[in-house]
Design a protein that fits this description.
By secondary structure, the chain is of the alpha+beta class.
Length: about 650
Amino acid sequence: MLTAVFPPFARHAGVFLAAAMFIYAVHGVAQEADRASEGATAEGKSVSGVVWILLDACRADHLSCYGYGRPTSPNIDALAERGTLFERNYAQAPNTLLSVPTYMTGRYEPVSYQDARHQNIWFLLTPPEHEVLVSSIFSENGYATAMFSASPWYTQYSRLGKSFDTFAWLAHGENVTGGSFEKRSPELFEWLNTHAHEPFFVYIHSLDTHEPRFHNNTHDTWLDPSFPKDRDAELRKWKGAPYSSDDRVHIRDLYDGAISYADETVGEIVAKLKALGVLESTLIIITSDHGEILGQDGKTLGHPGTQSYDDLLQVPLIISGPGFSGGRRVAAKTQNVDIVPSLVDLLSLKTDARFDGTSLLPKLAPGYVADPDDYVFARTQALMVETERNRILIYDDVKFDISPLNKEEMRLFKVSPRKHVEIYAMPDFIRRRHEFKVSRARVAQAEKIVQDRFVPLWEEREKQPKEVPPLSYIEHRNSIVPDAIVDTDDPSDNKWQHRRRGLLGDPLHEDDYLISYSWSEEAPGLVFGVFIPNGIYAVSVFSKTLEYGDTVRGTSFRFLVTPESEWRLFELEPGTAEDPNTKWFDLGTYTVTNGQFAYWIDQGNEDDFAVIGSLKFVQVGSDAEAIPSVAELEAERERLEALGYFGN
């Protein structure tokens, strides 16, 4: 029986569980007897509602109000003129999955809140009692809450989506028609019609500033009409590296056109609030979860989760309305994790939540002077989203990027070699990154801050129990047989080929599987141990037939679940190239008691392919309604595919 299949990875799935947690609670959270009435700010003006508009992948330095040379954002500029603009605001991560939970909880190392049922990226940890979503805080204080999202990561089934009273999709994609934003997404405007005259909180997660650049949500104001159409189509969808100087200009022009379109949608929302007579009493927040790299280095387009450039971390923050009026510009560094503590402070919301961010209100005071030793904290992926992260400390003059991995772990996990502590001069953009030398004492101080303040936050997070979803799909990862799996397609290399399509693969379907050519090679048997919470599961494995040359061969493979002693042979008759045979083979019902499911796979009949897809785990006794239908799973895949996460 296998009990510890791959301890090096286990170390980083729940590492360093030892220290006590340090939490900085927001100052000045007043208590109020009844939050069913409108909140009053320090200025004495009432706040009837809050509209939080998240422009996914929007850089601050491409908005006119942040000094950009093009008029990309007149409606956002107008909010800045009547509100408060924070000049140096930072996200806590360079991608959506790491960033959204931080600003929705005000916490540096929150658990994850995305939809894990559909594509099963990982198992979610249970939030601690003192970690509370902003939507729940508003609900507990008598506000009507609603989320309108275009993000496939945060569906109506996600923890975040389920925390709101109302969830609805924003129309998004190349096939969307309807003209104005209101015609495309009428549910948002209908909800405002119903709830704008009671205390309300609305979160709008827009993807119009996110790749791909569709024709229906990207203005062509700055596009060169002579630019080759085939190349334009590639660049709109994250394809075509390396990028020439002409490409980089076109990428920038597309991005600015997307911001311009998104700005129009902001204008429509503001106009709706004005028409309803609640604009002056509504707090409007404009920010982003992360920025975007625009091919400036000739090869990178998007927002890689492992990178810490300011292109990705410096994002807009504009708050307009009671408490944030007057056209202020705040030069002090701020963070997205400060938003929720600020709302609690401003509106005197009752909550037992604890925050790592702090209220922005003191920074609005005339004559406020920032501490010169103040820093901003962020995280990037060291391995995967759910493993221990690189910690980023951003000062006025320098950025520290501190890895949790040692050299041996970097080699083991095939991480690009890097220093344990990398130090860069500020500002730190991809086209002008420079290493920066500081004293050993200052490096030691940065490492001590991470060890004393931020490692305990991660350790406390990792102590939380895992949530067991009713349905899980798991890929074959981390075989302990060395050098037996490759990405190349060679029918005679005596290895298994890992065939994966797109950035993520698709554990539900045939886009992620292991194959071997049993008639021409002898690939070794593989042993795996996959992490899964303890429980009782009905387990099955996916397979399909493949075409080779002009022939479609059958598929067969052998499978052994430890501690069983009998191998089982699974077979599929040949299908056709147009219609291959596919099947989920039932493996049986198993009780997981040590957090791992261990098994062997091997080739089958010598004339066949061996094609082994993902494992499916269905928790025995699950509510059938909690398991997504095939239609729901397909809709999830289509949304991810529209963002470029699938496809060749």
